[in-house]
Design goal:
Elements: H1 3-13, H2 25-35, E1 38-40, E2 44-47, E3 57-60, E4 68-72, H3 79-86, E5 91-94, E6 108-111, E7 114-116, E8 123-125, H4 126-133, E9 140-144, H5 150-156, H6 159-163, E10 165-172, H7 181-195, E11 198-205, E12 212-214, E13 217-219, E14 223-229, E15 236-239
Parallel strand pairs: 4-5, 4-9, 5-6, 7-8, 9-10
Antiparallel strand pairs: 1-15, 2-3, 10-14, 11-14, 12-13
Helix pairs in contact: 5-7
Length: about 260
């Protein structure tokens, strides 16, 4: 980079704007292949949000034996968690942005904390949260919607911690960042960490933000991903067809679906 361009970029950074060369279509295509769901012996069901589009997720029909749900990021909705409360399954909730969960229930344990890479006065790591709230051997489910902190939380968690979760439902944010080299690396590392122990069984783009189009390929800014632990799968088949018939748009914004590259 010549001196003039370097000075210009520095000037932009000083004003809150950072420019970087974007990744090419091949890199984004590889990411889609990495996270593309597969067909398994388990069919999917929809949990949560029967009366509105947002707040519901597709999960494998393998909930028998789930003993506790961990759900960081609550805000004003507990549609997903309520279905487990109705089954008598305790729910562990944390959210640093609210003082109390929207629904009171004896099976709910809430702490005003952020999920993060380390435990501090106002945050807790996934490792420490499980150690403090889950008994050894319990079958767990994780539903994570923490507005961008999911990457550090995943990467700081041990494989043993992640393997405690039979099912993981995670909402991935700020995916436009994968068009930078650093963002691409962070996303790849996070996904490969999850894929050490789990298999992707569903992907659904949240249409709260418009997709990014690069050479005809659509990439979402927010993506809902469902994974199941590998030991629960007895058959892995062909790549899944998207969208699933149970999918719903999250907002009235433009509908779009992922396309297999």
């Amino acid at each position: 980079m010549n001196q003039f361009l370097q000075k210009f970029q520095n000037w932009l950074v000083g004003r809150g704007v950072y420019l970087a060369k974007t990744q090419n279509r091949a890199s984004i295509s590889d990411l889609l292949k990495l996270i593309w769901p597969v067909e398994t012996n388990l069919h999917l069901i929809r949990i949560g949000s029967k009366t509105r589009s947002d707040g519901g997720y597709l999960v494998p029909d393998d909930l028998e034996g789930i003993q506790r749900v961990f759900s960081p990021g609550v805000a004003d909705s507990m549609d997903f968690e309520c279905e487990f409360l109705e089954r008598g399954i305790p729910c562990e909730l944390i959210d640093g942005s609210i003082d109390n969960p929207p629904i009171a229930n004896n099976l709910v344990k809430f702490s005003k904390l952020w999920l993060s890479s380390a435990t501090t006065e106002d945050s807790i790591s996934l490792n420490d949260w499980l150690e403090s709230r889950a008994a050894v051997g319990e079958e767990l489910l994780l539903q994570m919607d923490i507005e961008g902190s999911e990457y550090e939380s995943i990467l700081s968690a041990s494989d043993l911690t992640l393997s405690r979760f039979r099912i993981i439902v995670i909402e991935l944010h700020d995916l436009r960042a994968v068009f930078s080299r650093q963002g691409l690396t962070l996303f790849e590392l996070s996904m490969k960490k999850l894929l050490n122990t789990h298999v992707v069984v569903h992907a659904h783009p949240n249409n709260c933000n418009p997709p990014i189009e690069i050479d005809g390929l659509l990439w979402p800014d927010v993506l809902e991903l469902t994974l199941i632990r590998r030991d629960r799968v007895t058959k892995i088949g062909a790549p899944a067809r998207l969208p699933h018939h149970l999918d719903q748009d999250n907002t009235p914004n433009r509908h779009f679906a992922l396309a297999m590259p």
